[in-house]
Please model this.
Amino acid sequence: MDCHEAREFSGDNLARPATAEQAADLQRHLSGCPACRAHVAADRALSEVLEAKMPRYAAPLALKRRLAANWPAPAPAARRAGRKVRAFALAGVLAAALAVVIGGTSVVVEHRSELRQLESETVNDHLRVLQGAPLAQVTGGLHEVKPWFGGKLDFAPSVRFAGSPEFPLQGGAVEPFLDRRAAVFVYKRRLHTASLFVVNAEGLAFPLRPRAQTVRGFSLILWKVGDQGYALVSDLGLSELLELQRQIASS
Model:
C-alpha cells in the first residue's frame, strides 16, 4: 500500500477497512510512514473538533430590556438605511468571529496532530526496545547508565531515578525518535517492561503537565521539564505506570 492509498482511509473510512487484508496493509504502511500517520491523526483531530458542541448562553432578560429601552428610535426615512448599516455591521462581526473560530480550530487540530505523532512514535520505539535494542549492562545503578550516553547524544538526559524495588532499572539505550535521538531508560515491573524516552523537546508538542492515556493497548505518559521531553510507555496498567512516573518525576 502506498501513501495515496493509505490516505484514502482517513476519516470514517479508517475505522471500517474493506477487508482484513486491507486493514493489515494499512497498519503496516502507517507503522513505517510518519507522514501518513500525521495525516491520519490530523484528520481524526479535525473530526473531533467539528463534532464538539460549542456552549451558547442567552443574554439575561434584564440586559435585553435595558438595551431595548436605550436603543434610539430611528426616523422613518432613516430606517431602511439603518437596517442596511446594521446588516453590514453584523456581517463584519460574524466574519471576525468566524475567523477567530477557524484560527482557534486550526491551532487545536495542529496541536492534537502533533500529540498523536508523539504517542505513535513512543509506542513504535517501545516495541523496538522489546524486540532487542542493545542495552547498557547495569550492575551498579544509574551512575553506570548515564556515562554510557556520553558522545551518543547532543544533550545530557536529566534523569535521577535509579530504580526502586518495585521498578528496578535494567539498562539504557540510544534510539531514533522522530527527527532526533533519544536516551532510553528501561525499567522492569515483574514481567513487564517500561521504557522512558528522554529527548530534546524543542519543536515537539510535549505537555507541561503529565498527559496519561492508553494508545494501541499500551499505557503512555508524556510530559516536559525545562527543555527536555519525557515519554513513558509500558503494557502495565495506567495506575502502575503513573506510580512509576511519580517516582521518576520526584527523584
About this structure: The chain has a mean pLDDT of 77. The two ends are 46 Å apart (CA to CA). The longest helix spans residues 79-130. Strands lie at 169-177, 180-189, 192-200, 211-215, 218-225, 228-234.
